[in-house]
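Priority: low. Protein: DUF1203 domain-containing protein. Input follows.
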Amino acid sequence: MIRFTALPTDEVRALQSGGPDAYGNTPERAVSDGAGNPCRHCLQQIPEGAPMLILAHRPFPAPQPYAETGPIFLCAEPCQRGGGTELPAALASPDYLIKGYSARHRIVYGSGAVVPTATLPARAAALLADGRIAYVHVRSARNNCYQARIDRA
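Result:
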């Protein structure tokens, strides 16, 4: 069994309050056009016309060679943390890149693949059955943007 894990609320609240992103910059404020603006905290699409943040995020505990940093969106106003065992609404693209990471936060070679969204939960569960893999990242298949983390439930 798997669990989709959103960004931690304390980290998101700091960013929503103007705290620095992974590059030390204040998150940019924008207005959602309603399409392709998934919040990495509530794991929902940010509604059209709603304020949102655009910022650099590194979903790893420390900088290291495998710690990719890239752009993400967040609701600008406080939202409830999403996640759980069901595929989140934020994952609305036809496919995603998924990669398994070790407990040392290193890519487990051979684990990366672009998979159809409908098969993502099953593929992630298969990856997590491998004892070398501690967690899985879901990333955009086209832009490599971080979407969510998948853990064992």
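Strands lie at 2-5, 28-31, 51-57, 70-75, 83-84, 95-101, 113-116, 135-140, 146-152. The longest helix spans residues 120-128.
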